[in-house]
């Protein structure tokens, strides 16, 4: 058994003796789930890395969530009975694929009980600090729950409390349906975006946890210039556009990009204003050096301008980049 420096019980982690890295996780079986909501057909695809991964049509967001909540409640009550029977679900008229999809909703529902808007920024940051260690060439790191071993690293300062929130939800769920740390972080991160008014992001389940920490020094330093940030993200398989879209996560938190708990495109609007060079505002309070660096780069600036003008485009691109992020380097059950 691994000993950890985090105080976390490593027995909570799913065992995975041999990790197999894939990027993107294109060997995953793709499942399409059509269902009805408010008279409109919604198609949800679980293929994690293609642009068609998205909810194709969500015409009634509230209806969609209400329906999911109802289904999650029913499944939450019946899941302990249903799960042992998964192999014969057809006898009960229950589609196994729907159960997989609904499991992510059960996690979201459980997370909602402990997740507040104020806690959302830390939880979203946790996602990047777990997945962002991915190195495409070295086939190391990625979305594998190894953050639980890495909390004492300087770059992860402040994340212990965010993980504590998830630990509570996870230990409750583990009683009926065990969930890996990697799945847990990916799903609750998406929920954090959603409760702050951002896009709904479908998250595929089935990630296995690593039993060891990832290599150090893989996360970008805030002192990097635009070229350094681009190279760093490229090593993880992300384009400049995806770098800019993902950096929009900094709209949450206290770095001066509008309302700290509203997920919107104010990050880009404020980047365009470059308030840190104006003596009238408090320069050190707004943005990180890496945020400022993006606004100084011509290629990044084109995306910043686009997202400042078009929040819907930002939401769409953020959603796709988030799905790619949480599938980076993941090792999958049943793959
Ligand atoms: C582009 C490279 C990035 C760098 C250099 C960077 C660095 C940082 C730093 C230094 C902080 C401040 C932490 C503190 O207040 O102590 C921060 C906050 C944050 N980061 Fe990043 N980050 C990057 C990208 C990302 C990405 C891709 C995401 C998520 C998709 C993300 C999510 C967040 C969030 C939500 C916060 C606010 C946390 C809070 O206020 O509790 N960051 N980041």
TrEMBL record:
<keyword id="KW-0479">Metal-binding</keyword>
<dbReference type="GO" id="GO:0020037">
    <property type="term" value="F:heme binding"/>
</dbReference>
<dbReference type="InterPro" id="IPR044831">
    <property type="entry name" value="Ccp1-like"/>
</dbReference>
<comment type="similarity">
    <text>Belongs to the peroxidase family. Ascorbate peroxidase subfamily.</text>
</comment>
<keyword id="KW-0408">Iron</keyword>
<keyword id="KW-0349">Heme</keyword>
<dbReference type="GO" id="GO:0016688">
    <property type="term" value="F:L-ascorbate peroxidase activity"/>
</dbReference>
<dbReference type="GO" id="GO:0000302">
    <property type="term" value="P:response to reactive oxygen species"/>
</dbReference>
<feature type="domain" description="Plant heme peroxidase family profile">
    <location>
        <begin position="120"/>
        <end position="335"/>
    </location>
</feature>
<dbReference type="InterPro" id="IPR010255">
    <property type="entry name" value="Haem_peroxidase_sf"/>
</dbReference>
<dbReference type="GO" id="GO:0042744">
    <property type="term" value="P:hydrogen peroxide catabolic process"/>
</dbReference>
<dbReference type="Pfam" id="PF00141">
    <property type="entry name" value="peroxidase"/>
</dbReference>
<dbReference type="InterPro" id="IPR002016">
    <property type="entry name" value="Haem_peroxidase"/>
</dbReference>
<keyword id="KW-0575">Peroxidase</keyword>
<protein>
    <recommendedName>
        <fullName>L-ascorbate peroxidase</fullName>
        <ecNumber>1.11.1.11</ecNumber>
    </recommendedName>
</protein>
<dbReference type="InterPro" id="IPR019794">
    <property type="entry name" value="Peroxidases_AS"/>
</dbReference>
<dbReference type="InterPro" id="IPR002207">
    <property type="entry name" value="Peroxidase_I"/>
</dbReference>
<keyword id="KW-0560">Oxidoreductase</keyword>
<dbReference type="InterPro" id="IPR019793">
    <property type="entry name" value="Peroxidases_heam-ligand_BS"/>
</dbReference>
<dbReference type="GO" id="GO:0046872">
    <property type="term" value="F:metal ion binding"/>
</dbReference>
<dbReference type="GO" id="GO:0034599">
    <property type="term" value="P:cellular response to oxidative stress"/>
</dbReference>
């Amino acid at each position: 058994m691994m000993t950890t420096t985090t105080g976390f019980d490593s027995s909570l982690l799913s065992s995975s003796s041999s990790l197999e890295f894939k990027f993107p996780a294109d060997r995953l079986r793709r499942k399409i789930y059509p269902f009805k909501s408010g008279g409109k057909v919604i198609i949800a695809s679980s293929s994690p890395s293609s642009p068609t991964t998205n909810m194709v049509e969500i015409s009634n967001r509230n209806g969609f969530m209400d329906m999911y909540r109802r289904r999650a409640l029913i499944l939450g009550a019946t899941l302990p009975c249903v799960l042992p029977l998964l192999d014969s679900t057809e006898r009960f008229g229950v589609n196994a694929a729907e159960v997989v999809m609904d499991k992510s909703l059960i996690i979201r529902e459980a997370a909602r009980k402990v997740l507040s808007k104020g806690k959302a920024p830390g939880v979203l940051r946790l996602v990047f600090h777990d997945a962002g260690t991915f190195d495409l060439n070295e086939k190391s790191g990625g979305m594998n729950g190894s953050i639980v071993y890495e909390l004492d690293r300087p770059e992860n300062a402040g994340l212990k409390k965010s993980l504590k929130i998830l630990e509570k939800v996870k230990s409750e769920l583990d009683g009926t349906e065990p969930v890996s740390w990697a799945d847990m972080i990916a799903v609750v991160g998406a929920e954090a975006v959603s409760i702050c008014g951002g896009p709904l992001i479908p998250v595929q389940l089935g990630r296995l946890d690593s039993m060891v920490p990832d290599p150090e020094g893989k996360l970008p330093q805030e002192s990097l210039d635009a070229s350094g940030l681009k190279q760093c993200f490229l090593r993880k398989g992300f384009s400049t556009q995806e770098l800019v879209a993902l950096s929009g996560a900094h709209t949450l938190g206290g770095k001066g990009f509008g309302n700290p708990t509203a997920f919107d495109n104010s990050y880009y609007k404020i980047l365009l204003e470059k308030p840190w060079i104006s003596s009238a505002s408090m320069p050190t309070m707004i943005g990180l050096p890496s945020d400022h660096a993006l606004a100084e780069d011509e290629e990044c600036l084109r995306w910043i301008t686009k997202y400042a003008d078009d929040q819907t485009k930002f939401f769409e691109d953020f959603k796709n980049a988030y799905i790619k992020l949480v599938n980076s380097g993941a090792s999958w059950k049943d793959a």
